[in-house]
Amino acid sequence: MEKQELFKIGDVAKMFHISVGSLRHYEKFGLLKPEYTDQETGYRYYSTRQFECLNTIRYLRVLDMPLDQIAEFLRNRDVKKIQEMLQQQKKRVVMKQNELQIIEKKIENRLQQLQDTLSSELDTVRIIQTGPRRITWIRNKLRPKSYLDLETSIRQLEKQQENTVVFPGKVGIGITKERLLKKQYETYDIVFLVLDQEDNYNGIVEELPNETSVAIRFCGSHADAPVYYAKLANFILAHKLTITGFSKEITMIDYGITNDITKFVTEIQIPVAAI
After folding, report:
1. What percent of the chain has pLDDT over 90?
2. Would you kindly state where each structural domain of the chain is located, as residue ranges?
């Protein structure tokens, strides 16, 4: 075969708007071997009769078809076969769209949370209303001085999960009602994870009802919390409220987001009711 009937690999790549690396990958995968390879120079050449095959590969790749399925089709081209492949690929695309929608929702949740946190009024006690929340939790006594002290508990919460469900601003610790009433703020009893509605958690999930809470946000992390628990306790006493459940303490901004400790923000919520 005369070389003038052939096209260099670089020229073919330009014609089909793909990379030389892609053509080499197709060759390695057995999809499209060069018509001729110069044994002295190693240059690869393709003929026009291979262009139809390359067009088919490129079309199926645009549809995100896996290379092994493309190879199978090229070995046994058939109308029914391509119909089946396209139907299967359509199902995969729909699944991927659903996954991307979930990812988009998670991103939106985190953006809203960050915006809310950055606009917080710090060191001010507020009475807030929270809607129903899904959480999973474990009892674990600890006295965290940094986020590293929570790692073992976080791994327990994430155990056996197919996808990551632990993100900044979702992991919290709590003090039981009994300990709050005794004003014991140094030791925590619960580690919990707030689940987004789209989270598919493989384990025991508790649905928290609507809650009225006294809350405070402050610059700092868990090690700085006791003084703010005392501030909340004074507010509860002054406004004749009673504690109805365990506290929910979450670092909204910490090392997971920034190394600047002056930008850390932690929130404490204590559920209450009127006496």
Report:
1. 61
2. 3-77, 125-274
What CATH class is the domain 3-77?
mainly alpha
How many Å apart are CA 43 and CA 23, to the nearest integer?
Answer: 13
| 38: Cβ contacts below 8 Å, ≥ 6 apart | 44, 45
**Closest C-alpha among 103, 201, 208, 92 to residue 157:** 201
Q: Rounded to 10 degrees, what is the CA torsion of 162, 110, 137, 260? A: 110
Nearest 5°: phi and psi at 166? Answer: -95, 115
Euclidean distance between CA atoms 137 and 171, whole angstroms: 10
Closest CA to 142 of 193, 191, 180: 191
Q: Mapping DSSP to helix (H, G, I), strand (E, B) and coil, where does residue 6 land?
A: coil
Report which DSSP code applies to 225.
-
- Dihedral sign for Cα atoms in the order 166, 170, 175, 178: negative
CATH of domain 125-274: 3.20.80.10
Q: Would the pLDDT of 148 be above 90?
A: no
Model confidence pLDDT, tens digit, residues 192-232? 988 888 888 888 889 999 999 999 999 999 989 999 999 99
- The pTM assigned to this predicted structure is 0.72
Q: pLDDT at position 1, please?
A: 46
How far apart CA 85 and CA 71 sit, in angstroms, is: 12
φ, ψ (nearest 5 deg) of residue 35: -65, -35
Q: Which of 75-79, 96-100, 157-161, 177-181 is predicted least confidently?
A: 157-161
Residues 6+ apart with CB under 8 A from 243: 177, 180, 181, 236, 270, 271, 272
